[in-house]
Amino acid sequence: MLIPLKLIWTSTGTFGDRDYDQSYGETFAASRSDFDTVTRVPVRVPFPLGGDYTYDQGSGSTMDPPQDYSRPTTEEFFVYVNGPNRLGYFHDGNGGVTTVSTTLVLTSQVVGCTCYGDSSGDILVQTSGMDGPFTYLWEDGATTLNRSLVKAGTYRLAVTDVPSGAIARATILVGSNPELVVVIEKAGGDVTLQVSGGTGVYTYLWDDGSTSRTRTDLPSGPHSCVITDILGCTKEVQPGGQPRPVFLVAQPHHPGPGRRQRLPPGSHHQAPPLVFVRGLD
After folding, report:
1. Positions of the chain with pLDDT lower than 50, given as ranges
2. For 13-41, what is each residue's pLDDT tens digit?
3. Which domain holds residue 54?
4. How far apart are alpha carbons 43 and 51 in whole angstroms?
5. Residue 42 lies in a domain
6. Number of independent structural domains in the chain
7. Distances in whole angstroms, Cα of residue 219 to Cα of each of 42, 151, 226, 242, 279
């Protein structure tokens, strides 16, 4: 498609005689400049190939002389959009073009998650370069500009400037404080908790009220301890206590007072059965 930029007519001669001929007038040819919307460059056609015009001034003619044309330099006559970039085209007044470029820019601020695995992250996004209005589409389907209470991870956003169709995209990473990691060291009834990760100093709270990292002669049975870091992030472990001892006790068979046990021919004496007895707490 060609968009006219400038058209200049120049007289190339006259015809007829005003005093003797019924048809008389003047001929014109033009130079012209158009804008090609496919290649986005001006196309200049020099005089006299830009056009021709016959101005009949004879009796009864209603023709007007040809009119020069120049597109206003303040008119944005064409817009090209590529991703977040918008390029507006203006006539320079001489058959050429000037351009004005604008870019839709996204900037973000991220508040990471306080505790590993929770949903306390925030994403704040600002737009600049264009006035909008805008539409917003996150990869997970959300349609708001900002996000709150999100998990740690990667988030992708597309913002569209509605008037121009320019689209800016952003990939935003929400981080998290390290995970609390607890290694349980056991030796009999002695238990020591080795803690890493999280943030700052750790506190300990056992199910029996103890606040020590190390337990000596921890009674048998299930036990639990909640470790908390300085930000309030927690991790619960169940180290257990010293196992109860197991004894093997032979249970003899007594045939009864004054009786002897007779074995069937070919049989052998069998050892008494063993009974497992677990020690009591």
Report:
1. 244-249, 273-281
2. 988 877 676 678 899 999 999 999 999 99
3. 2-77
4. 14
5. yes
6. 3
7. 91, 39, 18, 6, 12
